Amino acid sequence: MKKIAIFMMLFISVMASAQADTKPKNIIILFSDGATSSQYEFGRYSSALLRQQSFAVTDIVMANGQYQLMKTESANYFVTDSAAAASAMSIGYKVNNGAISMTPDGKTPPTIMKVAKEKGKRIGLLSTAPIYDASPAAFSVHAKSRRDNELIVNQYLELAPDVLMGGGSNYFLPNSFPGGKRQDGQNMIEAFQAKGYQYINTPEQLNQIKSSKLLGLFADEDLDYEIDRNSQETPNLAQMVTAALKVLNRDSKKSTNRGFVLFAENENTDSAGHQNDVAALMRDLWVFDDAVKVALEFQKQNPDTLVIVTGDHETGGFSPTYGRKNLGPAGTANYLNVRLEQLQQIERYKMSLKVFSDQFKAKTKQGASNTELNAYLNTLLQENFPGLILEDDLREKILTQSQLGSNSNYLPANILGLAIARQTGFYWGSSGHTPAPITVAAIGPGSHLFKGFDDNTAFAVKLRRLMGQK
Ligand SMILES: [Zn+2]
Questions:
Q1: What pLDDT is recorded for position 327?
Q2: Which of 19, 53, 116, 303 is the most interior residue, by most CB within 10 Å?
């Protein structure tokens, strides 16, 4: 018995050290900005009931892989922004809100993408936000401020990611061009092309990629929410991930090939949280999950791939719960409980609260009278939010463009978000970020490192270790 016990202990320790040395060739980081367990659980529940589909984030990556929780406070605040959170995850040090991988004393330890490049890996950056936005920027380059857009794009040219795709053509074009915003007069699209990049700007061009270096810019600024997206004009995240994996995995059989690191972000899950837009959030969680499924399919063909699903912070204090059906007596008989019926109601909405706000604000700027505005509001609601009841107190706030409260920064979106909550139970605690710990789910070689409760700076340490850097 004793011998068996010793043998078992030896076996376990050999297995553990073998596991510790496991280094994936490829790493795919799928990043849902603003999302953590409450959003993913909503994605799982709505996906099962409305699309009769499993939700890969919870049902595959978390269930069959590993997961951990990560705390997110920044160097200067309890509640982080995307820049500080992604910086901590990239360089392994805390930075102030708004900084891009630069510590409060001005240091710039190497980013994850710089380490990957040093290790001979190909690198790819994708986002539904402008590609120079806080999260992809902090994973790759350095800047004092997340607003230093020109500087960030200049550093991208120098870093030369093999794939760069998303929105944000405005800071690639001089301000003399339509939609261009660069003050320095440079045309960075041409600069990338001169470096051998194929430039694309439509979804169908994703099927015509010939080069091993790709720049894809599909909007001046953000790519549309899935609920608003025109599939002829804008690709979704799953389509971009599919194309990126083809480019990054070229010549994968060659002995010199060291694999790649891909960072793919859905920013719309954060924006939907800010706007308190449950219908937009649902569609964007589904399309994010479709991208996770693409990554898992790739992993099946290329088992030396680690797939990580994570984010930076929670947005909106997303809190579906039972409120009262009406202002009648409290008690369970008057509870509004969330189930299929409420999901079906939000599934009928056809427009994001952002587009609703933009259209309504445009009408107010035309100097419409109160009666005209009210009629316009009714038309917008009937056509795009069938079945939604807007109670008088909230209607009044929209028409008079009043504040909802000091915790509501996105108006009138947040007001309509509250109307939806009253009727469906999908409440929100804030229009901003919250310090809810963030889930890191991982599956594949190296996933064993992601368990327990850790700081977001540990993410960088683990990634470096997985790439063979101390
Ligand atoms: Zn945000």
A1: 87
A2: 116
Instruction: For residue 227, report the distance from its CA to the centre of ligand 1, in Å.
Output: 19
What's the CA-to-centroid distance between 270 and ligand 1, angstroms? 5
Distance from residue 386's CA to the centre of ligand 1 (Å) = 28
Ligand 1 centroid, distance to 345 Cα (angstroms): 26
Q: How far is the CA of 100 from the centre of ligand 1 (A)?
A: 15
Write the burial class of residue 301 (CB in 10 Å: 0-12 exposed, 13-18 middle, 19+ buried).
exposed
Q: Which residues contact 379 (CB under 8 A, 6 or more apart)?
A: none
Q: Smallest Cα–Cα separation from 460: which of 90, 49, 41?
A: 90
Q: How far is the CA of 14 from the centre of ligand 1 (A)?
A: 44
Q: How far apart are CA 287 and CA 346, in angstroms?
A: 16
Give the span between the Cα atoms of 436 and 303, in whole angstroms.
Answer: 32
- Of residues 243 and 330, the one with the higher pLDDT is 243
Q: Does residue 13 have a pLDDT over 80?
A: no
Burial (0-12, 13-18, 19+ Cβ within 10 Å), 381: buried
CA of 428 to the centre of ligand 1 (A): 14
Q: State residue 14's pLDDT score.
A: 46
| pLDDT of 332 | 87
Q: Name 151's Cβ contacts closer than 8 Å, sequence gap at least 6.
A: 143
How many A from CA of 23 to the centre of ligand 1? 32
Say how many Å lie between the CA of residue 33 and the centre of ligand 1. Answer: 7
Q: What is the pLDDT of residues 214-224, one digit of tens each?
A: 999 999 999 99
Backbone angles phi, psi at 161, to 5 degrees: -60, 145
Give, in order, the Cα–Cα distances in Å from 426 to each of 32, 326, 342, 355. Answer: 20, 15, 9, 20
CA distance 281 to 89: 24
**pLDDT tens, residue by residue, 309-365:** 999 999 999 999 998 998 888 888 899 999 999 999 999 999 999 999 999 999 999
Q: How many angstroms separate the alpha carbon of residue 255 from the centre of ligand 1?
A: 42
Cβ within 8 Å of residue 423, ≥6 positions away? 336, 342, 345, 388, 389
DSSP letters spanning 426-463: EEES-SSEE-PPEEEEEESTTGGG--EEEETHHHHHHH
On the question of a cis peptide bond just before residue 437, with omega within 30 degrees of 0, the verdict is no
Distance CA 186, CA 192 (A): 11
Q: Do 125 and 157 form a contact (C-beta atoms < 8 A)? A: no
Residue-wise pLDDT for 38-80, tens only, equals 999 999 999 999 999 999 999 999 999 999 999 999 999 999 9
Cβ distance 460 to 90 under 8 Å?
Answer: yes
381 Cα–ligand 1 center, Å: 26
